[in-house]
Amino acid sequence: MTVFLSIFIVVTLLAIFHIIMYGSRASRSLSWILILLLLPILGALLYAVFGINRRRIKIYPLKETTRRKLYDFELVENDVADTKDDFPSVKGRKLANLMRKSALFPAYRGNKVKVLQHGEATFETIFTALEKAERFIHLQYYIFEKGELLDRLYEIFSKKIKEGVEIRILYDAIGSFSLPSKEIKRFKELGISIYKTMPLRYGSFLFTLNYRNHRKIIIIDGIVGFTGGMNVSDKYIKSEDHLGIWDDTHVKMEGPVVDGLHRIFIKDFFFASENENLLKESYLPQLDKVGDTVAQIVSSGPDSDHPSIMQQYIAMINLAEESIYISNPYFIPNTAMLESIRIAALGGVEVKILIPLKSDSWLAKHSMMASFEELLYLGVEIYVQKDNFLHSKLIVLDCETASIGSGNFDHRSFEHNFETNALIYSNQVSQQIADDFIKDCESSEKLEYDTFKNRPFKQKLSEGFARFFSPLL
Of 466, 442, 448, 404, which Cα lies nearest the Cα of 122? Predict the structure, then answer.
């Protein structure tokens, strides 16, 4: 008992010292200290895995850290199109400049953008595009699951490999943990280069477990790109459990902006494969203008200098003059984002938030609800989608700029995950997304302040408990 107590004291003091020195914010630091005290040893282990802000202390203990940052310099030096400002408003230009400095990619003119909603229609569009591939196909997904969609990909890839098309696949080690090894084997047997990102290995397990590659990217011949929130899972085309069909948003892009999206894949593939550098003209063709839409890629991860996804969302809220629409399954804003929403609501900006009624995480669901009473009091409109599981990650600024991607409104997406969003500076596209958002709100349940504040004590207690453990999210 004496030995255990000594270990507990030493480990706890070391963890508290680290929190004091490198904690990202006071409230979160206090939560971690309480967890350390309430959960002997386990609390320290949880902090080591989920709590350390490796961006803040400039340490990301994976062997390729320095190489990833050096790789970014090549990324910055390769602009493929005229990027002269051409935005619907000054707000767009400010946002684009911020993201250029924070996430490295400029905004490009001359793109064609198509918004994709609902699983069946989205994957039919993706399959049609894949079948037209002539040179190479690059895919990256957080989740690959056995099912109809994976079988369809296998059929298409079997055909394309015979036609001489190169195919490369990335999947996340945790997100695709349920994918049977025999499925991976049959794709490899076709001649496909397939690798897992952030593998769990001896010696780096504690440092990689919490850092996931959450991106969803497809590149076809370097000229067509897809990104958004959908994974390769049958959950998007049929109901498999109590959550129902997963309702999500994706985007198809053509034009110069595809270059930025492709470079993200190339970087991740290089460090997953450990040997194949695709930064070559044969994979990065000169992209001509094919439309009139300005678009920009925003990416961030634990190795980024800035939390770009968080900065993007806060900037969009702060720039709003008329409206800000947010759809997200994990709306757990940090202090800075909550304050931005407060200011926007108090300043007369129409703030609407759409979330799912059902959730795949009890902790996430109750953490979301912990901030609702105050937001409702300030005039924020919160809608709950009942039928299916809302999984879209989108935000629309004044119906003139929209973001679609993989980034959630939670600490995990801001600090721990590799994420990618597409920023679309277009009144037409943004208005389309806004109109669909409003339709979804009209068919959802609107939370009323007077009713919500009188919710059962048990629910309030659950929210408080979840808020306490929100650092784990």
Answer: 404
450 classed as catalytic: no
Say if residue 253 is in the same domain as residue 154. Answer: yes
* pTM reported for the whole predicted model: 0.87
Domain that includes residue 331, residue range:
308-472
Report how far apart, in Å, the C-alpha atoms of 192 and of each of 136, 147, 168, 343, 389 are: 11, 19, 6, 51, 33
Q: Which residue has the higher pLDDT, 32 or 357?
A: 357
To the query of whether residue 216 is one of the catalytic residues in this protein, the response is yes
Structural domain total, the chain = 3
Longest CA pairwise span in the chain (Å): 72
Token match 């040997």: residue? 275
pLDDT digits (tens, 9 = 90+) for 172-217: 999 999 999 999 999 999 999 999 997 776 555 555 667 889 999 9
Is 440 a residue of the active site?
no
Indicate if 393 belongs to the active site. Answer: yes
Annotated active-site residue in 216, 252, 267, 416: 216
Phi and psi dihedrals of 273, rounded to 5? -80, -25
Q: Determine which one of 91, 138, 214, 411 is catalytic.
A: 214
Point out the domain boundary residue: 293, 319, 345: 293
Shared domain for 77 and 219, answered yes or no, is yes
